[in-house]
Design brief:
7-stranded mixed β-sheet; 473 residues; homotetramer; 24 strands; 6-stranded mixed β-sheet; 22% strand; Aldehyde Dehydrogenase, Chain A, domain 2; alpha/beta; Aldehyde Dehydrogenase, Chain A, domain 1
Chain lengths: 473, 473, 473, 473
Amino acid sequence: MEYKLYIAGDFVKTDQKLTVSNPYDDSIVGETFLAGSKELDLAIDKAESVKNEMRDLPSYKKFEILLSIADRIADKKSELALVLAKEAGKPLKYALGEIDRAIQVFKVAAEESKRLPKEYFSIDWTPAGHGKEGLVKYFPVGVIAGIAPFNFPLNLAVHKIAPAIASGNPIILKPARSTPLSVLELAKIIDETELPKGAFSVLTMDREAGNQLVTDNRINMLSFTGSPSVGWKMKTNAGRKKVALELGGNAGVIVSDDSDIEFVVKKCIVGGFAYSGQVCIHVQRIYVHETVFDNFIYQFTEGTKQLKFGAPDELSTDVSVMIDEQNAIRVEEWVKDAEKDGAKILFGGNRKGTYFEPTIITNTKREMKVCALEVFGPVVIIEKFSDFDEAVKSVNDSEYGLQAGVFTNKINEMNQAYNELEVGGVIVNDVPTFRVDHMPYGGVKNSGFGREGIKYSIFEMLEPKLLVKNADY
Amino acid sequence: MEYKLYIAGDFVKTDQKLTVSNPYDDSIVGETFLAGSKELDLAIDKAESVKNEMRDLPSYKKFEILLSIADRIADKKSELALVLAKEAGKPLKYALGEIDRAIQVFKVAAEESKRLPKEYFSIDWTPAGHGKEGLVKYFPVGVIAGIAPFNFPLNLAVHKIAPAIASGNPIILKPARSTPLSVLELAKIIDETELPKGAFSVLTMDREAGNQLVTDNRINMLSFTGSPSVGWKMKTNAGRKKVALELGGNAGVIVSDDSDIEFVVKKCIVGGFAYSGQVCIHVQRIYVHETVFDNFIYQFTEGTKQLKFGAPDELSTDVSVMIDEQNAIRVEEWVKDAEKDGAKILFGGNRKGTYFEPTIITNTKREMKVCALEVFGPVVIIEKFSDFDEAVKSVNDSEYGLQAGVFTNKINEMNQAYNELEVGGVIVNDVPTFRVDHMPYGGVKNSGFGREGIKYSIFEMLEPKLLVKNADY
Amino acid sequence: MEYKLYIAGDFVKTDQKLTVSNPYDDSIVGETFLAGSKELDLAIDKAESVKNEMRDLPSYKKFEILLSIADRIADKKSELALVLAKEAGKPLKYALGEIDRAIQVFKVAAEESKRLPKEYFSIDWTPAGHGKEGLVKYFPVGVIAGIAPFNFPLNLAVHKIAPAIASGNPIILKPARSTPLSVLELAKIIDETELPKGAFSVLTMDREAGNQLVTDNRINMLSFTGSPSVGWKMKTNAGRKKVALELGGNAGVIVSDDSDIEFVVKKCIVGGFAYSGQVCIHVQRIYVHETVFDNFIYQFTEGTKQLKFGAPDELSTDVSVMIDEQNAIRVEEWVKDAEKDGAKILFGGNRKGTYFEPTIITNTKREMKVCALEVFGPVVIIEKFSDFDEAVKSVNDSEYGLQAGVFTNKINEMNQAYNELEVGGVIVNDVPTFRVDHMPYGGVKNSGFGREGIKYSIFEMLEPKLLVKNADY
Amino acid sequence: MEYKLYIAGDFVKTDQKLTVSNPYDDSIVGETFLAGSKELDLAIDKAESVKNEMRDLPSYKKFEILLSIADRIADKKSELALVLAKEAGKPLKYALGEIDRAIQVFKVAAEESKRLPKEYFSIDWTPAGHGKEGLVKYFPVGVIAGIAPFNFPLNLAVHKIAPAIASGNPIILKPARSTPLSVLELAKIIDETELPKGAFSVLTMDREAGNQLVTDNRINMLSFTGSPSVGWKMKTNAGRKKVALELGGNAGVIVSDDSDIEFVVKKCIVGGFAYSGQVCIHVQRIYVHETVFDNFIYQFTEGTKQLKFGAPDELSTDVSVMIDEQNAIRVEEWVKDAEKDGAKILFGGNRKGTYFEPTIITNTKREMKVCALEVFGPVVIIEKFSDFDEAVKSVNDSEYGLQAGVFTNKINEMNQAYNELEVGGVIVNDVPTFRVDHMPYGGVKNSGFGREGIKYSIFEMLEPKLLVKNADY
């Protein structure tokens, strides 16, 4: 099946073809195209030309557009989920969950579009302001470039598209080359709404166009989700643009002595192995209090054994392949390196093509790649701690800081974790993988710059403007 | 010493004299006057006549006035504390603390006067609102009558005066007959500032004037702190006025098994016996987990024994007399009744004139007056519980609901206490007696109506007004 | 057709029948029942029994319930509009508009149910608060009694029901005796949702039950829309309950010299005569700048002549009958009195049964009932002014203060109107009849107490509770 | 007099001397030093070492420190003003005003330090969040580098220092080489407070240290006020740092036909010539409606003639010299170029050393440097317009967008100006030069990135951290 690119209301082909295949069996999922500078230029021109129209859309109109997108996605849910499952190699049950979340993002964006921030305040704190009052409204920043990753090809794109519409900004979305199809399906849906043409384009890009996206002065903001190295370089090259970066992590979990181990293990297995760990907030490092460590290891290993491997498009599949063989090989090497260096593999560790087994490791050292870097694969390390301070330090001993999980019923441990963990979000009694779409989401240190989560993305896509006016004139 | 009443900038005498004496030794602290309807009428007239001027005071002017009051109180701190200690029979160290809090209330009110609530929002959620936006500013309600109790004669009056000024309302304050002097001292201070004359009056009143205060249509709001029976009747008779009621309580404390008993006991002794328990949020009922009960009882009794009785105007005094003999006798009777009915007095229980000993009781039943009613005296009951649910139910088993304290390090107990305790405020790891002046404060059930705490009082003293205006006209 | 009352999930009959007839032709619209104390007691008991369940409903559940009500109303829109048109004698186009607004109220309530107010703040402004932080969540007040008027029998009931559900409170609704049917239709709709049974009852009541509703201590809040005399008496008898009163008005409009008269006249004719002026914010008094007065009078009269009289259930009808003959006679008398006293009737003035003609009067005096009281009929007075100050004073010269309209393009006139008009809402460049459902709505002076408008009603249906907790424990 | 640099509590010399002279008469104001990398390294190390201590300062402590700084500045006001007047060549009356504003900034920062943003919200918008709630607190970003310009050497430094302290961040301040002395005086003041040593350093820097300040990874945020070219380059080189840029402008004013010309002219003369136009929001371009143009020109010219030239340290001086001869020569050339190209000089245009006369120009073209670039000198251009649209377009016809002024009494012109002017702030009925210190301040387009104004600066110096926690666990 052929998917055309979407530029400002037109579905177009280019002379650069792109084939998208299923990493599970290498079957072709669809054919699409790469845009070059010419197509990108057109998309930017069109986006600029609807800036004022987008800025002036009344609340009820933005609300209607966003809700109608949500409704249409819901109508095509199973179709979309299948495309997504195949292009990303994502087990169907998780693909279906992703569609549900994309629907929720559009619905929440619809609600938030009516609640853009506005401040009204007294100016007369000194005689200089006598008789005056102030209003701050937040205006759209302008043309936004959204760059989405392969791992949640629909929902992480939607986390840029929906807030852009809600805040009155045109957006050009660049999906990952390996997974552009679900978002091109979304383009068909959006095209049927009353969103002004030009306010939304989807372009898979060649390298030149990709670079231009970062440097072009007509673009006012970059919103990027992807790898740290690419992201930080983008910030340097962005010129006057605003930049939002959602990068990776090697999320840690602390399991205190009073935890319900059965509950915790169940959460951690999903957090560790869902979509083969190819999740920014995948559970990578688990620190367990010594009094419950053995029990934890036992239950965790037993639970992991139950995971069912299979094709992504089957509902019963728990784990499937990785996005490509290159990544599977990388993970295999990191695990082998760790083993060579003294780590003990409690379960898994083997690769077969694009499939890498759910893998549990202990006895690691902090410098091992499986600890220090973002493994982005189905690998979990589990270590023991004896006091809470030590566990906090272990989680912080990382270049990354996205989210962390803490299982405890102690107020003081909750407080300490929140005050001291160097992350964007501390999840108490759940895994760091926890995310609902309206919460603020983003990392510190190497993990990112700025926050997403509809209301928060919207805020970053706006520019305050002050009105000082007479109140008693 | 003679204290004149303060009406709209004038210090006046009336033909009804009022003598204020020290409950410790019956010595005369000062002489003042009772206002009748004539004086009250004048105060109301003057208040009405400055309504618009008060409404239109710029922020910087209100800020300056409020800060200058705070500064002047600080300058006269020891003098004011002495008057307060003597008229109220309040140990000097607590009287000094009360002055400090009154200063803080004026300072915070100064800051909040610049931050009155204002909302700006989109109206165009449906086509009917196309092109329009909304502003809500909060305007002063009008003339306020403040009625203050004897137990914190300065600070609880200030909790009405300072927010009234901050919100741009004139206020007429009626102090308790037993303790009018410290607030008449405050009138001298305020008179020296640039507050428009008429915006503040202080009148001790005869019964007729007191009734008129409640029913007079020119008064737009009643802010009352005092007994439940008087307060609720006032609400009935208030006509169209807004009403805020800060009434009594019989505050409960829960001590969980993981608490640091030494720390808890120290807090509870102050909460139970400071100013002889004549405090709305005095610690009256303590529920202690059975595993730490005996230790708690022992330490609490030992600690109570250390309290030093003395004259209110001596710095070393921990406990002194009650406000009058009538109240001391009442408390004595309640304690005797409880004992007759099976309760066990662990310490104290005796009266000598206006002095009633710090008293600890256990083995009580819920219907006993020392449990069920507001004892407003130096009496604490301590009972044992075996599970947290039971403790929560015991605290809730009361007509009152002001504040409660919970000592625990367990997240689930904190959550349960907060969700289920029927009170205005749950204080975790401190006594219910905890109050800082900017926090919202007030009760549910029989304990009150509305909230104080500067920002919250200000909000209750304001009336929203909407402006719907064109945004793109 | 027979409509049963709705008590906590059961549709019930009583032994007191009530016939509802169409004021246009006296035809029977339906039969229903009056509840007595027995039925009310049951409704209150059931409401109390689901208080905790309602308090603990998760956001997503309240959201789903409220949205599903909105969707079901939309499905039955024409059916509901017809019942409403007939029972109220309301022209169908306005009845349809009212259904749309009721849908909107449930939708907005759904959104707001996820956004209940919550405050988190630092407590450590003085050393007394060291190491502590504060949280204020707002909990449901308890059982609410909603009392709705005849003029918007559905939407003004919904303005109580939807916020009650959104805030987690059970509600018992008492509709007007003349117009109970549309809200009994709504009961059928709500009964099909997952709202806990007991959280909603609809009872038309006999006098005894009506009185009990006000005085019963198990009810925690009264939310009343109706006449001032009944409302204010209710406040007096309400005991400890919270009270919200939406009462009447005699809304004024100011037309400045720079106004577009054609635009203004069009707005004012709808504001003055829609639903025969039986609207709290009906345009009753218009003050027009002398330079445009004659033109205004001419166009207004011509426009009024075009209004088409007819049956309420016909789409082409602009004006129809009043709610009953008694009211039509009252309006007739007021108009005759005014004429006798020197006023000049420019158009209309005649009655035929329940129909009273759209009527335009000038040369009035402030004491005439058509000026000073709430006419609640199709009568508009139009007077001339020469300066803006005078116009503001004229609008303020009233016992009422609900909303006012000001047509002007001058910043200083807008500011003056907003600062000085004694009303709940100032509508610039539109009539005072302007209302969208999410804006704060309510009056000052004799016109009311508190505010409605979903978010604002929700706030009034909540009680703050403070949690003071350790942050660094 | 010798001024030592201030590093983390120590006053130090370096081996690079720097002489600061008065641009009016070239007299030496003081001697100080340039820091190199060694000193900067030390300052950064010390700053890092107090990060946690700063983060954990309780509110009352930050409040006390900030207020005590404000009080000490007030005590030394005349002394500080004199140093400032001399080093900057700023007329004493404006220097005194600057000290007052610096005091105000510290006072407001004190208040805001107790009100750092905190959000508490429900997480359970979908079943995935069942039983959970969210808290967002904002934590300090880390070490801040503040870079201040010469034109407000004290207050624009204070706009970085005070918010840094209020938000709990250590800050290293680099003043301009020409005007470091007043902020070194401030260092003496701050050194006497309880601010942890290391939290504040002041270093004039050599080029190498200046570059390191931008690139050093231990610094977490750059807050720069200065020229666009330097600022934008800094953003590129900043790595992972947050960046706030306050750059220049060529502010426009629109004078509508209904304006009070006498009032407007008075405002515009101050806005145009105060401190010789060396102000980011100096009135550079005035667009006057044709009906009032001639009158405006006449009054403006007459008013300008009255300005008194003199030494900066004399109170009667209205205008004095520019910061150095190089700048005076630059302005002279731009004016000559404009004249050559057809512009007409209505007044002024001559230079004498560092002094450039207040200069009024008309008949300009948009490309002339005096229009298109930031003149940063005492030059004002005045042009005529016939309709408001045209005036808005003229103001927008610029690379810059800081603030704009609009004199009008028309609601629609106010709305259009606010919606369409591409600036950070629109000032109605005052000049763009209007600034009070607590309002949000900053530009769009070439004029800046981010906002200052205490609360807004504080927000930019904070990083959100989410806590997801059980609410019903």
